[in-house]
Amino acid sequence: MKSPGGFIMEQIDPVCGMKVNPTTSKYKTIYKGKIYYFCSFACLKEFEKNAELYLREGPRKMPT
Amino acid sequence: MIYAKCLIMKEYRVKIIGVDCPTCVYSIERELRKIKGFTEIKVDIATGEAVIKCNSDECSISKIYDAIREAGYDLYKETLVTYVNISPEQVGVLEKKIAEIKGVIEAKISSSTGLIKININPLETNREAVYNELLRKGVEIKQTPEVKVHVSDKITLITKLVAFALALTAISYSMISMLNPSISMNEEILVTLAFTVIILNYSVVKKGYKLLLMKAPGMESLIALSSTLSFIFGLAIYAGILHQTHSSNTIIHSSSFFEASAGVLGFTSLGKYLEEKLKQKALKHLEELEKASRGKARIVKNSDVVEVNAEQVNIGDIVEVKTGDMIPVDGIVIEGAGYVDESLLTGESKPVFKKAENRDYVLAGSTLINGYMKIRTTRTGEDTVIARITEGAREAQFHKPVIQKFADKVVGLLTWIVIALAIIVAVAWYILTGSISLSLLFAAAVLAVTCPCPLGIAIPMVVSIGVLNASRIGILVRRGDLFERMAKANIVIFDKTGTLTLGEPRVKQVILLNNSNEEEIMYYTCSLEARSEHKLAQSLLEYCRENKYNLSSDVSYFEYFPGMGLIGQINEHTISIGNVELANRLGVELDQRILSLINEIGSRGSTPILVSIDNKPAAIVEVSDTLRPEAPEVIKALKELGFKVGLASGDIKGIVEKFREELKLDFAEGELRPMDKAEIIQRLQSNGGRVLFIGDGVNDAIAMSTSFIGIAMGKASDIAKNSGDAILLTNDLRGILKLYDLSRKVNKLALENLIWAFIYNTTLIPIAAGALYPQYGIVLKPEWAALAMILSDITVILNSLRVGLSKAK
Predict the structure, then answer these.
(1) Of B509, B569, B571, B674, which is most buried with the most CB atoms under 10 A?
(2) Number of folded domains that form chain B
């Protein structure tokens, strides 16, 4: 499978750092033309709140 | 990486016979706790249906069966009887093998004749499944097994009626001789009558004492104590062992104890029987649903037609249905046509015409009124809509609101309190009057008058009937506390497409941008939309069909973003179809002209869909949907009921604003993704709001689960994938008002039942204890106390039945 951003194998949740399978993940979003996949709704929500922080500093931990 | 410790979790669904109050559940649970691995039991007192959970292999259905029987109850079961070719030494092994089949409670084999008797749990398996499994295990069966259902209804009724008649005779005889002293009373007749009544109700007395010995007394224990102690005391006076010391009292007569004994048992046993019948009547619809999912099916194989049980039909099989047949599977009509009655599923009494040309769907449980059809099976067994409805109705019944949990605790203690009270009453009256007979008569009355059961069934009974009644008007209730929640909700939020609108959008125009070509754009658009389940996708596909635009099968990538749109790749081109938000996130540049075109479409109440190819805007498709005709009246009615009514939609703000003005909504928010809707709901709820969200059960699942109540609009065919606490199967918004009316009625009757049960007990127990005797000389004799008790019990059931009488507007 190929996305506009390139080939998609396993993806890293940018919030918690978990490995996510893009073909099965229900939680995803687009930010600045790129697709991001998440392990949970909580991570997705957290990313939407502060995408730049996670993209700049990398994954931190699971949001509480 | 987190590794969870895996436990074997097993769940058994059974129907327990004889459960009619929470104390019964308590005593069953006590026995079940003795089984290693038992974790939990949930019982619906109204139907006797239970779910038992275990986390060990040691906790088997046969052990559960034994435990339930040990507690004095029984399991609803069917018996399969047949003969097998077997040598005596194989018996033990085969019995073990059969016991391992899912749903088999126990198996017994006669080594001399090969007669095999298998008790099965009809809630988990059926005769055919077990029969096939036996064949699979290599058992040689000599003849077709037959099913014997354990029902001895007629005998039970005759016994109860005879006991009641004898009790009435005993009371009349005793009263006549008391009122007219010239008639001499033959006490032997009374002794015989009372003794016969006890014998006829041996099972009740036995159960009562058994529960008492197990330190979990129930109503039967109180009745057994009251009647047998009265009888023994009567005998003692009759035999001259005890002497009446309070001879001045004209009410108390030695015969009083015999009539009390006969009356208490005679009245209550018939009453309990009638109560059981009333309960069965009340829950008949559930039975109808279950029956409907069991019938026979005729499978067409080449030119032959084979009749099999509905459960044996496989997906893809062609099933033949003739006039008057109940449709056995969910499927698509591939040949023929006819009028189908779907009332059992949707409550809609008007038959629906279904034909092969339209590839119409039909559902198991509906009836072909006239016509002939061949159906290609798409769903069978547990996956059919009817099975989901039945399952939903069952699950909902397990729910207990807080007030019921409290009542259950009270009931658990009440029987002990009453026994203690009876002892105190006996001692106190003996000290006060010196009369053993008077004090024991009061004690017997206290035991007979106490009515713990209505406290236990007050709410579950009404909720059960409410859930079933809802399914009759086309509403599938999935949680028992829905009625309670409906009464507490104060904000209603609607989704737009498919909820406030009919969900049948049409393409009005395609506006081309940047000198693009419509056929090329629609080729890309429809090729991607063909993979989407969104309602708007259907309108685009319809447009392509009408204009004979081709579709590509070369979609190399597809991704759907709820609330925004979709992106994909066809022939190395990246296509995005959706709203402005999607375009912005993908970095598609939208100039002022495009933005004003989008706003213009929105202000007309239509939806603009922006198509971009390789990140360049190519076209705007204007799609419009029709408002549901009933939407304005439903919103008006909800506002009159005091709800704050709003709209939360993924559509652009212009359309949403138009809807707000037209429908006089309190608020309306647009350009929302499903998670934004969930956030709005969360915010409202954290400020004290209790949101009833009505939307699409598939796309709005997050909002649905965040809200206080989630109701999905859904055609019955989509039921399996829909989320929500309830589903409006008729796809008519007036269902919300019907559900609200029904909820009010359910809540009112549940409360009435509970209040009645509390008032009854708190008023009559003191009277039975002799509170009115010193001042007014009033004695509530045990037999009349028992009559009052059983009438109170029946009153609760009859009151619950009134839910069924509610015909929503």
Answers:
(1) B674
(2) 6
Crossing angle of helices B219-238 and B187-200, rounded to 10°: 160
Of A2, A28, A33, the CB nearest to B556: A2
For the segment B736-775, what is each residue's pLDDT rounded down to a tens digit? Answer: 999 999 999 988 998 888 888 888 888 888 999 988 888 8
A5 in B contact zone (CB under 8 Å): no
- pLDDT tens sequence across B661-710: 889 999 999 888 777 888 899 899 999 899 999 987 666 777 887 889 99
Pick from B477, B285, B469: nearest CA to B393: B477
Q: Is A60 on the interface with B (CB under 8 A)?
A: no
Q: What tokens does B392 get?
A: 């939903």
Disruptive mutation site among A1, A2, A3, A8 for chain B (greatest number of B CBs within 10 Å): A3
B698 interface with A at CB cutoff 8 Å: no
Q: Mind giving me the DSSP string for B169-186?
A: HHHHHHHHHHH-TTSPP-
Domain boundary among B666, B700, B729: B729
- Among the partner-chain residues B556, B574, B585, the one whose CB lies closest to the CB of A30 is B585
Range of the domain at B547: 506-624
**Residues 6+ positions from B51 with CB-CB distance below 8 Å:** B11, B12, B13, B41, B42, B398
User: Are B519 and B427 found together in one domain?
Assistant: no
SS3 B52: strand
Q: Which CATH number is B572's domain given?
A: 3.40.1110.10
Q: Is the pLDDT of residue B1 over 50?
A: no
The 10s digit of each residue's pLDDT in A7-63 is 456 788 898 888 888 877 778 899 988 899 988 777 888 898 889 999 888 887 666
Say which DSSP state B251 is in. S
Q: How far apart are CA B312 and CA B128, in angstroms?
A: 9
Contacts of A36 in chain B (CB under 8 A): none
Helix B254-282 / helix B453-472 crossing angle, nearest 10 deg: 20
Confidence label for B2 from pLDDT (cuts 50, 70 and 90): very low
DSSP letters along B365-384, please?
T-EEEEEEEEEEEEE-GGGS
The CATH number linked to B20 is 3.30.70.100
Say what percent of chain B tops pLDDT 70. 83
Residue B468 lies in a domain: no
Q: Count of H helices and E strands in chain B?
A: 27, 28
C-alpha A56/C-alpha A60 separation (Å) is: 11
Question: Helical H runs in B498-618?
Answer: 518-529, 535-546, 580-586, 592-603
> Above 90 in pLDDT, residue B575?
yes
Angstroms from A56 CA to nearest CA on chain B = 18
Q: Is there a domain that residue B761 lies in?
A: yes
How crowded is the C-beta side of B696, counted as CA atoms within 13 Å? Answer: 22
Sign of CA dihedral B362, B364, B365, B370: positive
At B805, the pLDDT band (50, 70, 90 cuts) reads: low
Q: Is the pLDDT of residue B468 over 60?
A: yes
Strands B573-578, B607-613: pairing is antiparallel
**Do residues B386 and B292 lie in contact, with contact meaning Cβ atoms separated by under 8 Å?**
yes
pLDDT at A45: 84
pLDDT band at B320 (very low <50, low <70, confident <90, very high): very high
Q: What is the CATH number of the domain that holds B355?
A: 2.70.150.10
More confident residue, B215 or B592: B592
Selection from B10, B799, B46 nearest residue B480 by Cα: B46
The reply to whether A27 touches chain B by the CB within 8 Å rule is no
Q: Show which of B601, B624, B647 is a domain's final residue.
A: B624
